[in-house]
Design goal:
alpha/beta; Spore Coat Polysaccharide Biosynthesis Protein SpsA, Chain A; 7-stranded mixed β-sheet; two-stranded antiparallel sheet; 10 helices
């Protein structure tokens, strides 16, 4: 099973935790790819995810399955050659848009599951991953809020959240979807740039059930939970943003203890990485 993460050094905690959650439920070899880079934009510098973390996680996933792997890829040259110029100053880091360069990396396999670093796995994803993708560019779940506001073909709801995307890179290379998205991100400023571009330009996409990208509240059938920003109306209207590695807030704000065992293992793993312990 092929998994893709993208970002700078700030995704480290999330990637560690997300990968750990995958090892609990994925029984086949995991081949994890991390696209990262160093970059300076809008007077802010982004440092790449340390290669040492990828190497550490490579050793960890091999403990679960000797055929598993974690591969660190510097995509900085590709990004610099075609930066998303119009969207470098948005609240989303430029590194978030690295997934739009995946078609340019020959090392990446034709089928790969992209995950945001704040996505946790809590059930087997084999059926979702193995679905027929013939002629389909990507498969994802409707965005919890955006599906009501961004409709390409009203009244049909078809605006996908880009935090969990099963990508058919062979088809994407054929249709030029990512190339078109890169061009749009370079020329037009957008809200949630790469997600907006993907939804605007994807021609052949499939909508998956909510359980494969639960963005609101944990359900009994949730397979992948995505800890996005949500909104609460009581006792006043306010935004709530809690990431899974913020353990105290997971308990106090979300009242969520579902992942306590996983979080305990994550803290131990994080401590091992901090002291350079690779478990031999």
């Amino acid at each position: 099973m092929n998994i893709l993460y993208c970002g700078d050094k700030n995704i480290g905690d999330g990637v560690m935790l997300s990968v750990l959650s995958l090892t609990k439920y994925v029984h086949e070899p995991l081949h994890i790819y991390i696209l990262t880079m160093g970059y300076t934009a809008a007077e802010k510098t982004y440092e790449p995810l340390p290669r040492s973390l990828a190497d550490f996680l490579d050793r960890r996933v091999k403990m679960q399955n000797a055929e598993s792997s974690v591969t660190w890829i510097d995509a900085g040259a590709l990004f610099a050659a075609q930066p998303p110029t119009a969207n470098l100053g948005t609240r989303f880091t430029p590194c978030c848009m690295l997934r739009l360069y995946a078609d340019r990396i020959d090392l990446l396999p034709d089928r790969i599951l992209y995950l945001d670093n704040d996505v946790l796995c809590r059930a087997d994803i084999a059926d979702f991953y193995a679905q027929d993708m013939d002629g389909c560019e990507l498969c994802g779940v409707l965005d919890h809020y955006g599906k009501w506001f961004f409709k390409r073909n009203p009244p049909r709801l078809d605006y996908l959240n880009s935090g969990v995307l099963l990508l058919n890179l062979a088809e994407i290379r054929k249709t030029g979807l990512f190339a078109k998205c890169r061009e749009r991100c370079a020329a037009k400023k957008m809200f949630m740039p790469d997600q907006s571009a993907l939804n605007k330009l994807a021609v052949n996409k499939r909508i998956a059930p909510r359980r494969y990208n639960e963005q609101r509240k944990l359900q009994k059938d949730t397979v992948l939970q995505h800890f996005t920003t949500s909104f609460r109306f009581l006792p006043w209207f306010h935004a709530v943003s809690v990431k899974p590695w913020q353990i105290e807030r997971m308990h106090s704000v979300l009242k969520l203890h579902e992942y306590d065992e996983l979080l305990s293992e994550y803290l131990s793993l994080k401590a091992d990485y901090a002291k350079g312990d690779d478990h031999g």
